[in-house]
Amino acid sequence: MRLIPTRAWAATILFSAFAILPLIAVGLNDSYLIVIATRILAYAIAALALDLILGYGGMVSFGHAAYLGIGAYSVAILSRAGFTDLGLHMLAAIAGAAIFALVTGAISLRTRGIYFIMITLAFAQMAYFFFISLSAYGGDDGVALDARSTLFGHNVLEDDTALYYTALTLLVGLYLLAVAITRSRFGRVLTGARENPVRMQAIGFSPFRYQLTAFVISGCMAAIAGVMLANQTSYVSPAFMNWHRSGELVVMVVFGGIGNLLGAVAGATIALLLEEWLALLTDHWPLLFGLILVLVVLYSRDGLSGLFRRRP
């Protein structure tokens, strides 16, 4: 009998735990758990998107929060215009993110190392200040959504549990897509370009095209996370795309383990749970969180996923 790989078991356990969480929330009579969990799922999608290019393409983007903002503002702008369908919101978010990623990625990928990091940050800040200038949508203060997105003309997402399971379905689907991409020929070439772009070019592949394609796919995935985040908060502001948010996404990926898609999901989950728990203990929780992150990185270059693999 063929054994199921350990990573498949881990993914099954993690997503099953997410699936039964609403039942636990009902048992504890604590609806706030679902609200927090939906936020975690949205950020897990964004961390997954970032790990696709960071872990497999070696592209350290410090501006990925821009795509969160593009997704969120797609919901706000279309809803204000009378278009409320979730599918339409996601299509608009994907289109906007694809265009932004294609243009900025084509420029950014002509640089390497710290220069790539800084230019992605610069483009994200340009997007941030652009949305601040949109006074029709609240400028720096943002704008509250009158209602959540509709699903096939129905307001089912007004129910927190329905929104939660929608976010979970998107996360599982995008995770499987990312796994398929990394295991495909495209993913192998992308990884090869990360290790030795000159050698990949010598054997007939164009690292630039593969990296740019991955960059666009990653941006589109992160924009979907922005759509779900906007629905979860019922509020959209430029703060969604501030550079601090990009830094948080990088931390989540590092925390879970770079180059491990499931680790990115777990890293986002544990990082946000720690944030909630430590905030209850002290107002200086970022100090404690930073200490935990330093310890994890010192003892495992592969983050939390590396710690679990080292267990006997």
UniProtKB/TrEMBL annotation:
Keyword GTP-binding in record: no
Protein name: Branched-chain amino acid ABC transporter permease
Subcellular location field: Cell membrane
Annotated membrane topology: Multi-pass membrane protein
Domain of life: Bacteria
Transmembrane segments: 7-26, 32-53, 65-83, 89-107, 114-137, 162-181, 208-229, 249-273, 285-301
Pfam families in UniProt: BPD_transp_2
Protein's organism: Paracoccus stylophorae
Keywords carried by this UniProt record: Cell membrane, Membrane, Transmembrane, Transmembrane helix
Keyword Hydrolase attached: no
